[in-house]
Amino acid sequence: MIAVVSIGALERPLIDGVVEFVGDYYSRFGISVEFVGEVPEEPFSVAFNPLRGQYLGRIFLPTLSALGEKLNAIAVLGITELDLYEEGLNFIFGLANPSLRSAIVSIHRLKNEFYGLEPDDELLLKRAIKEAMHELGHVFGLGHCPNPRCVMHFSNSLYDTDVKGSLYCPVCEEKLETNLRKLGVSP
């Protein structure tokens, strides 16, 4: 099972949409995807950098990993509205650690409202799905892909996220299948 958790309260249709899409995709490998609940934001306050007004993304991953172990999940995906960053980067849409089998996606900068535009829940869901698929690809050992349509293509901006597709290209999908077999998961 891939466990999905919200960090802080999120709109349930967004969570359900991500779980449904990711679940439909990973079901071909016999992997279910389940929303396992909400984790409060407060324990992650240590990740907050007041000079930046953002949270250091890597701080979330060990806690998510521990939750995954407790649930006997193959991976854990956290989704949050908190604005994340990593050292050397202005922001990140998400982050993953294959050895911890955990990933986090921030919808903060995926929202139109961040850019002064009208809210668009459908577009936000598409973006969140792409970032979830991307970070789970990293969890399962995929690197960035040079194909701009592949979901594993690096998103340096929201434009990059909007241009790429929601699925792995054939090359990345083959690598994913190989990596999942190594983990004892077979299609």
UniProtKB/TrEMBL annotation:
Xref: InterPro entries: MetalloPept_cat_dom_sf (IPR024079), Pept_M54_archaemetzincn (IPR012962), Pept_M54_archaemetzncn_arc/bac (IPR012091)
Alphabetical UniProt keywords: Hydrolase, Metal-binding, Metalloprotease, Protease, Zinc
Protein name (record): Archaemetzincin
Domain of life of the organism encoding this protein: Archaea
Keyword field contains Transferase: no
Record text on subunit structure and interactions: Monomer.
Record GO biological process: proteolysis
GO molecular function, one term: metallopeptidase activity
Catalytic residues identified in the record: 135 (proton acceptor)
EC number: 3.4.-.-
Xref: PANTHER family: ARCHAEMETZINCIN, ARCHAEMETZINCIN-2
Cofactor field: Zn(2+)
Record's cofactor remark: Binds 2 Zn(2+) ions per subunit. One is catalytic, whereas the other seems to have a structural role.
A Pfam entry, by short name: Peptidase_M54
Membrane-spanning intervals of the chain: none
Binding site for Zn(2+) 1: 134, 138, 144
Main function: Probable zinc metalloprotease whose natural substrate is unknown.
Sites where the protein binds Zn(2+) 2: 145, 150, 169, 172
Family: Belongs to the peptidase M54 family.
